[in-house]
Amino acid sequence: MPGLIEAVAAERPAAPAVTFGATSITYAELNRAADRLADQIAALSVGRGDFVPLVMRNGTELPVAMLAAMKLAAPFVPVDDAAPPHVRDRMISALSPKLLLSSLPGVPSASVPCIRVDLAALLSDDAQVADDARAEGSHRQRRGPDLDDLVYGFYTTGSTGAPKCALNLHRGLLNRFSYMSRRFGSQGDEVVLQNSRHAFDSSLWQLLWPLTTGGQVIIPDRAGLLDLQVTADVIERFRVTMTDFVPSIFNTLVAMMLTRPDLTAQLTSLRRVLIGGEEATADAVRQFRALLPEVSVVNTYGPTEASIGSVFHEIADADTGAIPIGAPIDNTYVVIVDDRLRPAGPGQVGEILLGGECLGLGYVNDPARTAGAFIANPFPEIPGSRLYRTGDLGRYLPDGLLGFAGRTDQQVKIAGVRVELPEIELALQRHPLVHEAKVIVRDGAGGKWLVAFVTGASALAVADLRLHAGRELSPALVPKEFIVLDRMPLNANGKADRLELARLAERDRLASADVELAANQVLTGKQRLIWEAWRDLLPVPPSSVTDDFFDLGGDSLSAQRLALRLTRGLGAPVTVGDIADRTTIAAQAALGDGVPAAHQPSTRIELDARLPANIGPGPARQGPRRHVLLTGATGFVGAHLLHDLLSLGTAKVTCLVRDGSNAGASDRVRSNLIRYRLWREEFAGRVRTVAGDLGQPGLGLDAGQYQRLCLDIDTVVHNAAMVNLVSGYAAHRAANVSGTIEILRFAAAGRGKPVHYVSTLAAIAEGTGTPAAEAPASAPPPSGGYRQSKWVAERLMDQAAERGMTVACYRLGEIMPHSLTGVPSRRGLPDLLAKACLRVSLCFSSQVTMNYTPVDYASRLVVTAVARGEAGYFHVRHPDPVSFDDLLDVVARECDLPRASYGQFWKALCAQADAGADGEEVLGVLALVPRADEGAEAEAGVRLAGLFGDDLAPCSTDRTDRLMAETGMRWPRLGDEIFLRYASYLRASMPNWGTVR
Questions:
Q1: Neighbours of 945 (CB within 10 A)
Q2: Tell me: the pLDDT tens digits for 543-570?
Q3: N or C: which end of the chain has fewer CB within 10 A?
Q4: Looking at 116, 151, 169, which one is the last position of a domain?
Q5: Average pLDDT, integer, range 935-963
Q6: Quick one: 76 and 146 in the same domain?
Q7: 476 part of a folded domain
Q8: Cα dihedral angle (911, 914, 918, 922), rounded to 10 degrees?
Q9: How far apart (Å, rounded) are the C-alpha atoms in residues 65 and 674?
């Protein structure tokens, strides 16, 4: 496998290999980065046969990591980053790896060393120097993998309640890819869209096969709901020629195409679509081919245990009934057998067995299950010593092709994901109040979903079951519907009667729908239309116009179908984004009124701004603040807060850090303090870290840890936040909103603990022009996802204060470098622009006025308020605005840079991006700043100034001024002295900037 990709890299080094969002790398860069990463992990004694877990999100780093592992004959194993942390740790531990590769922000394992895969670092000049220094080094001497070496493993669900890792060989993967290249007549011009999640093996051919032919891989920059309109946009933008779909998603796409000629036009670059993972629908394929007759549709079949897919069938117009799964690919064999493993006759249903080059090795650390699934081959006509029992039923059709006929066990497919029902049942039975649990599959207009039936103690609540399932299972395995029974219905054999359970589920659903219909006679016409759509598509019918679509079991697929149905019913286009923004019937009823989405307030935001009723103050804790819980200690402001809290004297600080282990969390906190020149050895005994997750129930801690913290902590400083000025509210919601709720729940538990919340002036920037008071905001939610999430968090804090909790909120302005060291934030907009000036070797002039609050002054003020036990709002910003030009004047003098217009700066930045220089950092700046095309410089200047406007909005600082006067604090004088310290740091921290010039 790596040899094929290396050959393409040698032949076509400058050709685009992988594209993710705005980032694209060539074959030469892909191979070079993989070589360097392989050298890094080989230096840690990873080699042939050693498992390399990949805990990664989509991005260019993913195929780089896969190729690096393959070069060492070390099998890679993608681990689902969305799995609960303890499930993920169990997957990793089962592999006994020497290390893991990750692109996540936190160390994702409790016990395994982690290498962060950073493409920019792998392709940097420093990496080039190191690479040149070992010209005769390891990656030119190592022996590549053999055909019978392991190439990868993928976790699938298991009937014992634990995921099982199926292993495959280079032989099988190479055979699958060689077959595809031959069958599809590959010319090396394929553009393939990765349309399967990377945690599933179907993504492998999309990520790797094009790289063996000289094609291009397009990795979607996808977060949140799958939006088929976005998928079509990507196909059109990159002229994608090939991708795949799960049939349930494919059917929805076809339904959209039938009503949207413009959507069909976006897909004309396609040559071929593969579908698989579920039974294909003949009508949908026929309709698709009628709209795009030049596009071939190929049905694929094959289990994870046998190299992705082993049986292909190009669907023809004659396939009007059940679509065949086809015929085995090259060097692969199929036999259908009866229950005594004898060959089945024509038309007879039996179990499908696979043999040949496609077979994997079995399951990690599970010889019994491997022996049960991989049996001795009794058929001399089939090469090889083993056959794989798929558990699928099939028959030979009259034309000799294979037809699918069901399963022999309790395995099902939900949206293409393989699900073992006993695994879910065992997880539910681990709840202390559950006596028995059974799970069935329902098939409705919104797709398939899981329904759980449980019996247990009288106190058993559906909400607790749902929370328990979320902690025990991956998201795809959590049932959408829970029904609590007095007893489990049994059949004549004394087993759970699953047919009766299905009847009970339908009766429960219809009864609920009838009740709700009677209770909602006052619905308007539009509301009734939407209510009926929800009733048909969701596992749980709505009970009011304020119910949340996703709380009732909605997901990406049902949102797509709802958008399609409302488009027809309302006579106006409705998108998945509209559904995500308006998650109630009341909000969706406005969709047909022609009001743009951006002009309507998000009902999701309004609902999120309600603090759960069960959060209220415990008995107040008295005395000095001796033990503080701090969140966000691995950030810029957080590092200074930690330093200043520890400088109080005897105070101890516990830092909650998103990480897989306490040791990893501790390393991150210490490294962060060192980075900002704040670490002192005497801190070591008074700071400790706890690995957790704000977005998880109970802060991601086990019950014992949570209880001990509740007893130990007497003050909470909540500073952690996700900050992305490009992403929307949904991207910020988990960290900034759900995390705030969990912090308030923690502070209210046991004896009440004061909460000091670090917010931003951006949360109140869009007022009426009247100076904002140091008080709860009276203005509606602002625009922008980050600002909206902070607005919601402040509303939650206000309600906590109204219920008697002690709460202080600190709205910060633009936080700038330390006044003495000059060390800046890594993410601040002014710093990004200043560094960009060094990269393009010129400083631009502008009319920007900005706030400049040194981080050490802001942190000291917050910590002073914490020590005094203050409550209420404080606006923390330097009273004197400064000109950004004054700051850049100092940078220009210190670094000997010429001045230029903003338009010249923008064009130079674009040229850097086009040349591939500095990668994501340059693209990140371009994503934030306004364009300055010919004739648009004046408008760009206004928009640039607007980026800094939040921190200059009029606001009162009376309470902050009083606090500073009472404690003897004074703001520093801003000017060349402070600016020079920052400029000197910039010059020293970017030693290669002159080479760019």
A1: 17
A2: 778 888 877 778 777 887 888 888 888 8
A3: C
A4: 169
A5: 79
A6: yes
A7: yes
A8: 70
A9: 29
Domain shared by 930 and 990, yes or no: yes
Encoded tokens for 160: 């014992």
Structure tokens at 973: 């004088």
Work out the pLDDT band at 681, boundaries 50, 70, 90: confident
524 in the same domain as 466: no
The CA-atom distances, in angstroms, between 203 and each of 154, 157, 277, 330 are: 11, 17, 12, 21
pLDDT-derived band at 949 (thresholds 50, 70, 90) equals: low
- pLDDT tens, residue by residue, 444-465: 655 678 889 988 877 778 778 8
Q: Look at residues 169, 199, 227 and tell me which one is the last residue of a structural domain.
A: 169
The reply to whether 686 falls in a domain is no
Question: Which residues are CB-contacts of 522 (< 8 A; sequence separation ≥ 6)?
Answer: none
Beta-carbon contacts of residue 803 (< 8 Å; ≥ 6 apart): 611, 615, 616, 617
C-alpha 776/C-alpha 807 separation (Å) is 12
- Which H/E stretch holds residue 174? helix 170-183
Distance in angstroms (rounded) separating the CA atoms of residues 792 and 810: 15
Nearest alpha-carbon partner for 209 in 241, 249, 253: 241
- What tokens does 172 get? 């099988």
Domain presence at residue 902: yes
Whether the CB-CB separation of 853 and 878 falls below 8 Å is answered with yes
Confidence label for 930 from pLDDT (cuts 50, 70 and 90): confident
* DSSP bridge pairs for 481: 451
**What single letter denotes the amino acid at residue 724?**
N
| Together in a domain, 440 and 582 | no
Q: Whole-prediction pTM value? A: 0.56
pLDDT at 785: 78
Answer yes or no: do 503 and 528 share one domain: no
Q: Running DSSP on this structure, what letter comes out for residue 166?
A: E
CB 373 within 8 A of CB 296: no
CB 154 within 8 A of CB 55: no
The mean per-residue pLDDT over the stretch 644-652 comes to: 82
One DSSP character per residue, 370-386 reads HHHHEEE---TTS-SSE
Q: How far is CA 907 from CA 884, 891, 940, in A?
A: 20, 20, 12
134-138, 317-321, 407-411, range with greatest mean pLDDT: 317-321
What single letter denotes the amino acid at residue 225?
L
Residue 689 dihedral angles phi and psi, to the nearest 5°:
-125, 150
Number of structural domains (the chain) is 4
* 458 and 526 assigned to the same domain: no
Average model confidence (pLDDT) across the chain: 84
Give me the CATH number covering residue 111: 3.40.50.12780
From CA 874, how far away is CA 774, in angstroms rounded?
6
Domain carrying residue 997: 829-848+881-997
* d(C-alpha 377, C-alpha 388), whole Å: 9
